[in-house]
Design a protein that fits this description.
globular, 321 residues, eight-stranded mixed β-sheet, 12 helices, 43% helix, alpha/beta
Length: 321
């Protein structure tokens, strides 16, 4: 994994070293499926969420990794008591940075697949099989649930309108039909997370989705459900006026920031694609052959060498510390 900010690598390396010291082979030899959760001040919610997660998904054993992102409450302790392996980050950097660390732990710990869900209990753990099944069947490299194909309990019309708007925008930018760009219940081949650039500390849902699409991986959506939050309040759209709870203001801030990340990621990936094409026109032919043979991005049989090297959680942590 390439870090754009050296300070992020320093933080992540230190957290991983502590994680290995705490959990040993439990984290360095993960089962096939790693369930990754980013959590920030979710005491009261994270415990029940972890306890309800399945020990197996589609017949494959799971391990739960919770990244406690600079929490000021008992989130980390509660998650650990519920049975999760907890990466306790000392500073709050944002959901994107937390998930990036979780992906790295899963990938370098040997997990073949990653499933993500939220810490607030809004997603149904029984639907993890629904998002993972197409990946296991070889139909997709990355699968996201969709509330628009499934159902949602929220009656917030501003948020519903935003979901439709950004889905249409990302579909237009990438040429891939997407109905829900921010759904937190997702499944993917672990190596996919090492192949795309993940630099956003927050609003990483669109960065990962756009990156996966523009790298040529197969993306699919499945119907899924989003429930009302059980405990606490949403952290989305936090701003100087956040605690005033002025109707529409938090949604506005969230939408503006999400748009900045989505358009910025699309532009970055567009420039990367142009640069790759101009640097070596001859590289396109072997790549096309590889895809035809089922061994490049866009094929679910892509080899690990087609992605950024995953490395080993044990050896990589040793080399960096």
């Amino acid at each position: 994994m390439i870090y754009r900010n050296p300070e992020d690598q320093v933080v992540d390396d230190a957290v991983i070293k502590t994680l290995i010291d705490t959990y040993g082979e439990r984290v360095t030899s993960l089962p096939p499926v790693a369930i990754v959760i980013a959590a920030y001040n979710e005491a009261g919610a994270i415990g029940p969420v972890v306890k309800e997660l399945p020990a197996e998904v589609c017949g494959l054993a799971t391990a739960v990794i919770v990244v406690a992102d600079g929490c000021a409450d008992s989130t980390a302790a509660e998650a650990a008591a519920a049975g999760a392996m907890v990466a306790d980050v000392p500073v709050n950097r944002g959901q994107g940075a937390a998930l990036r660390l979780g992906y790295r732990i899963a990938r370098e710990g040997g997990a073949t697949y990653i499933v993500t869900t939220d810490a607030d209990g809004q997603y149904n753990p029984a639907e993890m099989a629904t998002v993972l099944a197409p990946v296991l069947a070889g139909e997709a490299d990355f699968v996201t649930g969709s509330r628009r194909l499934g159902s949602q309990e929220t009656k917030d019309m501003i948020r519903r309108t935003g979901v439709r708007f950004f889905a249409s925008t990302v579909s237009l930018l990438t040429g891939q039909k997407i109905s829900d760009t921010t759904f937190g219940l997702r499944a993917m081949r672990a190596e996919v997370t090492g192949a795309v650039q993940l630099s956003q500390p927050q609003y990483q849902a669109s960065e990962l989705l756009i990156g996966v699409i523009t790298h040529g991986y197969k993306v699919a959506e499945v119907p899924a459900t989003i429930h009302r939050r059980r405990v606490g309040e949403s952290k989305k759209g936090q701003n100087p006026l956040y605690k005033l709870h002025i109707p529409g203001v938090n949604n506005f801030f969230y939408g503006a920031r999400f748009a900045r990340v989505a358009y910025g990621t699309w532009w970055r990936e567009r420039q990367r694609s142009k640069s790759s094409s101009s640097s070596s026109s001859s590289a396109a032919e072997p790549d096309s052959v590889a895809r035809a043979n089922g061994s490049g991005p866009g094929s679910v049989e892509a080899s690990a060498s087609s992605a950024a090297p995953g490395g080993s959680l044990t050896t990589d942590a040793a080399k960096r510390t």
